[in-house]
């Protein structure tokens, strides 16, 4: 498939109260968010005409903005409706949904008390994040040299654009080295997450996953934990040291983009996409498509 730049596509983007032709959805170069990272966003998926856990995403968008000290001038219900309207306007029933809220260009300085809060919503067709054959084999991950920050230094539980720069750097490095992604540690040296997904491990039929008091508590993560518990599978949420990976048999990632994707290796550690991971991947796929 030929690469199509994201700024040169057909369609409509909702911006600040109106639908704008895709190529005309622009913002000023002195926008505060571009210079100081004052932006929050969500990544959502519509399956068969329904955005999975839409309200949970809209609530998190509002919460993330509040953590960055600004208020989105739309209610959760209004954001929900706008996301659905944007999908309908573009004639899509299976797509990726990206709401983004950010501070404008009224004031370009560290202070942003006079800046307008903007909201935009874009949607586009986006199939599986990874090739199905790659998912079946399991992803190859390397260790990132960058660590997730101490929650006393940044609003780490917000889905804030600025917090993703080290993720971009980590994923770029991984792809240059032939890996699909990178696994990051937190500032203390415990396993944290991949560059855009939460991570889970399996040992003796029990699932282990890192705490999320200082990283994003993914909505897909929450869903998979609910699925596992409903199946009677024990889920242990705890700090995990990197050397513990030698004792785990399975590993998988979760996220709106990656859905549930098995991992075959992290650095020198090897895993086999097993029955538990594959069952959760299958169950999640059927759940979001309302096939259960």
From TrEMBL:
UniProt keyword annotations, A-Z: Amino-acid biosynthesis, Aminotransferase, Branched-chain amino acid biosynthesis, Pyridoxal phosphate, Transferase
PANTHER family assigned: AMINO-ACID AMINOTRANSFERASE, AMINODEOXYCHORISMATE LYASE
Amino-acid biosynthesis found in the keyword field: yes
Native source organism of the sequence: Brevundimonas nasdae
InterPro entries: Aminotrans_IV, Aminotrans_IV_CS, B_amino_transI, Class-IV_PLP-Dep_Aminotrnsfr
EC number, UniProt record: 2.6.1.42
NCBIfam families (alphabetical): ilvE_I, PRK06606.1, PRK07544.1
Family: Belongs to the class-IV pyridoxal-phosphate-dependent aminotransferase family.
One matching Pfam family: Aminotran_4
Swiss-Prot/TrEMBL catalytic activity: L-isoleucine + 2-oxoglutarate = (S)-3-methyl-2-oxopentanoate + L-glutamate; L-leucine + 2-oxoglutarate = 4-methyl-2-oxopentanoate + L-glutamate; L-valine + 2-oxoglutarate = 3-methyl-2-oxobutanoate + L-glutamate
Protein name: Branched-chain-amino-acid aminotransferase
Function, in words: Acts on leucine, isoleucine and valine.
Cofactors (names): pyridoxal 5'-phosphate
GO molecular function term, any single one: branched-chain-amino-acid transaminase activity
Pathway per the UniProt entry: Amino-acid biosynthesis; L-valine biosynthesis; L-valine from pyruvate: step 4/4; Amino-acid biosynthesis; L-isoleucine biosynthesis; L-isoleucine from 2-oxobutanoate: step 4/4; Amino-acid biosynthesis; L-leucine biosynthesis; L-leucine from 3-methyl-2-oxobutanoate: step 4/4
KW Ligase (keyword) present: no
